[in-house]
């Protein structure tokens, strides 16, 4: 019930921010239109068709030069927010090494909340040039666990580990997919090798608290199994 309420609240915030962004755009366009109409009116006070056309051309060129940077930024942000539309309010995203939640967005900038609670104000122009990973819109996500094990580990021990992990997944089938992949990733000359375990969650990682609880239980179980099997 709480998650449904949060989803509803995030949708309402997204609609509100979209409305505010569009209203600001409408105000900017009206302001530019008023300036153009005012200048055209001044030009029409002069006599002669050619004079009016020259004046209009001068006005148009001056207006485009004065507002070219603003217009370019606005158009790019409109494409980014409403056509590409990479996120909504409440989405958990990753930009570079930063994992953040979208709290509000506008025509010029977006406000994020980092996992430590600090707010980050970032221009949309800067974000739009980077790769954005949207966790909420992702499907189920695979947990890739990398372990170092002894070179003396046998094939039978690895198969037993996989069997025991599948038993754990069966008991927690509401949390995980009923499959696990175990593979040797690399061999070293210092007495150990890298073992990869891939397990798929039934959720994405939008809810960090719930994900951490499941991940902790999974890792503790694998640690216990490694000790029991002697790997």
Overview of the molecule:
The chain has about 230 residues and is α+β, with helices and mostly antiparallel strands. Among the domains are: about 20-85; about 140-230, GMP Synthetase, Chain A, domain 3 (2-Layer Sandwich), CATH 3.30.300. Helices cover about 55% and strands about 25% of the residues. The chain is built from five helices and eight strands, in the order ααββββαββαββα. It has a five-stranded antiparallel sheet with strand order 4-3-2-1-5. β3 and β4 form a beta hairpin. α1 packs antiparallel against α2. The longest helix is centred in the first third of the chain and has 43 residues, at about 1-45. The chain is elongated. The protein starts with a helix and ends with a helix. About 10% of the residues are buried.
Summary keywords:
about 230 residues; GMP Synthetase, Chain A, domain 3; five-stranded antiparallel sheet; three-stranded antiparallel sheet; elongated
